[in-house]
Write a structure and sequence with these properties.
Length: 118
């Protein structure tokens, strides 16, 4: 049985994904680029080729809302549609991961993430 906290985190990921898609539609960005770049943050998994600690660090940088929303804000403030679109795509990726249960990684191993311990 799934705990209430875990369920809320999955719902939160889904809601952020919906919001991100709504904003992407509002700004009329390219859906081709959306689907081409949607999984790009997962390239950060290549850090695991070095070791678990480095892999977790690099993965977490590219899978935190702080970076993606920062990119969205810079894109908005600078009226830069490329930054805004990239930030929204990155936020969509992160929220999609959270929705299905993938979270920030611990250095002990790739399968150890903050959502598993909730």
């Amino acid at each position: 049985m799934i705990s209430m906290n875990k369920l809320l985190l999955h719902i939160e990921g889904f809601m952020v994904l919906l919001l991100t898609i709504c904003l992407y539609v509002f700004f009329e960005f390219s859906w081709v680029w959306f689907f081409v770049l949607l999984l790009a943050p997962d390239l950060s998994m290549l850090g695991y080729l070095i070791n678990h600690k480095t892999g977790a660090w690099i993965y977490n940088i590219f899978h935190t809302y702080s970076l993606s929303i920062g990119i969205v804000l810079f894109g908005f403030l600078l009226t830069n549609s490329i930054l805004l679109a990239l930030g929204l795509i990155m936020t969509a990726h992160i929220s999609m991961d959270r929705m299905i249960g993938y979270g920030l990684k611990y250095p002990s191993g790739f399968k150890e993430n903050h959502l598993n311990r909730v």
